[in-house]
Amino acid sequence: MTAPDSAPVLRPRLPSPLQPLDDERFARRGLTLLLKRDDLIHPDLPGNKWRKLSLNLRAAAGRPLLTFGGAYSNHLRATAAAGRLLGFPTLGVVRGHELAGQALNPSLAQCAADGMRLVFIDRSTYRRKHEPETLGHILDEAAAQHGYSASDLYVVPEGGSNSLAVQGCTELGRELHGAADVVAVACGTGGTLAGLAAGLAPDQSALGVPVLKGGFLDTEIRRLQTEALGAPTPNWRLDDRFHCGGYARTTPELDAFAEDFTRRHGLPVERLYVAKLLYALVTLAEEGAFRTGTRIAAVITGRPGPEAPHTP
């Protein structure tokens, strides 16, 4: 089967808009804040989801696509939507075997409505999915449940971060040539930052704001860049201070910040990634982390949706 080009069917808005934002917290320090509105790329595959999936969709060539995620995974929803729009089967391996006997939450219900077949596995097995033997067992079981063999499946890792995703995200960096000095993005699995940094011009740098705690992303981003590009790039850094305790965790201060940002600028702020990114940039500006005259582009990777319940 010839690999289809999904772009004509999905009609993504590229390049995504770059919008200057008048915010005195930056202006009074001689800084310019720009919003790279990747959330406007596509209504069903916004932001880094389009960029990470586009080359994988072409490589899948219509085969059943299996991927992984938690109960509120943006990546699962985007993959399911792509399957519906392009007409290929999708399977989602969901962390949490106990969820199999419960009513689907809004996020998983949307996946199911878009045709994704859900496979629930226990959390211990899910944590070991990177081990070849465990992964093989998961694929065999998921495929058998739905009438496939494991060899039929095109497998995309959790969050969509693989070498093709990194290559797809390099275009984000190229779209910002000449427009910003520092480009900042919230990080989950690291694929977007890995590609973004590789696509930037030599006089630009990238800043990643991890939304999970654990300090593992530095090694993971270097691995992804090496697999996709041959070697890691030196033009990025991480600031691990803004995860608020981990994925889907928040604080009253972060919630208040997000609500205030929306009041100031009329932009609804997605909590799990975007709020932490913007909060980090305001904090760094107040700390004097950027030189006067710096143009900072914040990548808005998504918009509010059926998110996980926030845990203080």
- Taking pLDDT < 50 over at least 5 consecutive residues as the criterion, the unreliable ranges are none
Oligomer: single chain
Structural class: alpha/beta
Number of domains: 2
Query: According to CATH, what is the topology of the largest domain?
Result: Rossmann fold
Task: Report helical residue fraction.
Answer: 25-40%
Topology, number of strands: 10
CATH architecture of the largest domain: 3-Layer(aba) Sandwich
Query: How much beta, percentage-wise?
Result: 15-25%
Mean pLDDT: 93
How would you sum up the major sheet? 6 strands, mixed
CATH class of the largest domain: Alpha Beta
**Tally of individual helices:** 12
- Strand line-up in the sheet with most strands: 1-2-10-7-8-9
Task: Summarize the helix and strand pattern as letters.
Answer: HEHEHEHEHEHHEHEHEHEHHE
What spatial form do the alpha-carbon principal axes imply? Answer: globular
How many whole angstroms does the radius of gyration measure? 19 Å
Report how far the terminal alpha carbons are from each other: 49 Å
Protein described:
The protein folds into two domains: 6-45 and 169-299, Rossmann fold (3-Layer(aba) Sandwich); 64-152, Rossmann fold, CATH 3.40.50. Strands 1-2-10-7-8-9 form a six-stranded mixed beta sheet, sandwiched between helices. A four-stranded parallel beta sheet has the order 5-4-3-6, with helices on both faces. The protein has helices at 6-10, 24-27, 48-60, 74-86, 106-113, 123-127, 132-145, 163-175, 191-199, 217-229, 252-265, 274-286, and strands spanning 18-21, 32-36, 65-69, 90-95, 117-121, 154-155, 182-187, 205-210, 236-238, 295-299. The chain is an alpha/beta fold. It contains twelve helices and ten strands.
